[in-house]
Design brief:
Layout (H helix, E strand, L loop, with lengths): L2 E2 L6 E10 L12 E6 L5 E6 L3 E7 L11 E8 L4 E3 L4 E3 L5 E4 L7 E6 L4 E14 L23 E17 L7 E6 L5 E6 L2 E6 L6 E6 L12 E6 L6 E6 L4 E5 L11 E3 L12 H5 L3 E4 L5 E5 L3 E6 L8 E4 L8 H6 L9 E3 L5 E5 L4 E6 L5 E5 L15 E3 L8 E3 L9 E6 L5 E6 L2 E8 L1
Parallel strand pairs: 29-30
Antiparallel strand pairs: 1-2, 2-33, 3-4, 4-5, 5-6, 7-8, 9-10, 10-11, 11-12, 13-14, 14-15, 15-16, 17-18, 18-19, 19-20, 21-22, 22-23, 23-24, 25-26, 26-27, 27-28, 31-32, 32-33
């Protein structure tokens, strides 16, 4: 299916570019990718995994247009280690829940990574020079006797092999009782927020021992708890505005200028439920797993279990667009509840020009929706056809009756294969998808 590019070009098709990861049958739990994030100029792509590692890939220089979607490993480092909370007798997993890039202000790159309890700020720097000409050490690094020094030398920097170093600059800890599900860097590039199930905290990037609680929905009696925070994000342009979503399917927009504690929202976005569609699973599938502002800041998208919705910030009563992701699963909700898949948290993302929406599904399928033409396509991330620049064929799911040759039956879908995490290049038609322990990269071809 031909689609117009995220960069606003002519009709393009999605093509395979790269796949990173192993093909072993025995899957190592620590290798499962838990988040994907592309930086603001699209040159670096970071993934976090359940083993607490962060792997950064760098985009290949666009000398050959055919390789514009290729990324090579740039740096790998251990971000978090498993810990144990002795007061609560709880293990704290090393799994990376979220990664967020800070805007680049010098030759170094900075990113935030978080597990369930601790946020860390990392500096990623390049070093291609080494000091030499020491007075008290020889060229091999051995200590020289002060008695042997007859002249003083001024140390100089000499060219050396390029070394990529990741170093922790700040550790933001001990501020969350519950598991952190979101972090978001403010547009002022000075503050960020971290959200757990019941609270949202505001931090200054320079201060680690103090944070401000800006949202607290914990009831005095926990038996009265009816909803939890599922995702939170700052507005891309207004540094005082942020949204957070809940397990009840509501999105609250808050303005930090109105009050220090933003428990009273400025706007509440909620779609009334159709009583005709009410079922045992209604509340579970209405829970919002992700919320993202558009690059323009005018709209936001939310992902629940069955659909993606586009909201205009000027209209709270109903979404302006709704896209069904896998409606064919509605008859399977009972079995999805039994195998816990109904609680999967799918992410969604915008294209660079806000025209397209990308989100994942099962069987390693992912969906791309064109907001202008209202067309959509289902594609698959798999190793069956991984020649570079191979055009992907749209996939279709058959729900009953006679199945066509190219279709797949809904009963044959593999629910262990799922695209939960995805990212879109800010300027080009390049998308990155996490499929269990593999990272797939696809690019648009004119």
């Amino acid at each position: 299916m031909a689609m117009a590019g995220g960069s606003g070009g002519g009709d393009i098709q999605w093509c395979f570019s790269q796949v990173k990861g192993t093909v072993e049958e025995a899957l190592n739990e620590a290798d499962i990718i838990s988040c994907v994030e592309i930086n603001h100029d699209g040159e670096l792509l970071a993934t976090g995994d359940k083993g607490g590692r962060v792997v950064i890939f760098q985009r290949v220089s666009d000398v050959n247009h055919a390789e514009r979607g290729n990324y090579n490993v740039y740096s790998t480092f251990q971000s978090h280690e498993p810990e144990f909370d002795y007061l609560k007798s709880l293990e704290i997993e090393e799994k990376i829940n979220k990664i967020r890039w800070c805007h680049r202000i010098n030759r170094n790159h900075y990113l935030l990574s978080t597990n369930d309890k601790t946020v860390k700020l990392w500096k990623v720097s390049e070093n291609d020079k080494r000091p030499s000409g020491y007075n008290l050490k020889d060229d091999a690094g051995a200590t020289r006797s002060p008695n042997s020094i007859t002249t003083l030398r001024v140390p100089v920097l000499e060219p050396s092999d390029l070394v990529i170093e990741a170093s922790p600059r700040r550790v933001f800890a001990n501020a969350h009782t519950y598991h952190i599900n979101s972090i978001s860097v403010n547009s002022d590039q000075q503050t960020f927020m971290s959200a757990d199930d019941l609270r949202i905290n505001l931090w200054n990037l320079e201060i680690t021992d103090q944070s401000f609680n800006i949202v607290d929905i914990k009831p005095a009696n926990m038996e009265e708890l009816t909803e939890v925070i599922t995702a939170a994000e700052f507005h891309p342009k207004d540094c005082n505005t942020f949204v957070y979503s809940s397990s009840k399917g509501t999105i609250r927009l808050c303005d930090m200028r109105s009050s220090a504690l933003c428990d009273q929202h400025s706007k509440l976005f909620e779609e009334p439920e159709d009583p005709a569609n009410r079922s045992f699973f209604s509340e579970i599938i209405s829970s919002i797993s992700d919320v993202k502002f558009s690059h323009s800041g005018r709209y936001m998208i939310t992902r629940d279990y069955m659909s993606v919705k586009v909201w205009d910030l000027h209209m709270e009563t109903t979404p302006v667009e709704t896209y069904q992701v896998h409606e064919y699963l509605r008859s399977k909700l009972c079995s999805l509840y039994e195998n816990d898949c109904i609680f999967d948290k799918f992410e969604c993302t915008w294209s660079g020009n806000d025209r397209y929406i990308l989100t994942g599904s099962y069987n390693n399928f992912y969906r791309i929706f064109d907001r202008e033409t209202k067309r959509d396509v289902t594609l698959e991330a798999c190793r069956d056809n991984i020649k570079p620049n191979t055009v992907l064929k749209p996939r279709k799911v058959c729900t009953g009756g006679k199945r066509k040759k190219e279709e797949i039956s809904v009963d044959c879908l593999d629910f262990n294969k799922k695209i939960l995490h995805a990212a879109w290049h800010p300027n080009l038609d390049i998308i990155a998808l996490a499929a269990t322990n593999n990272l797939y990269i696809f690019n648009g071809k004119a």
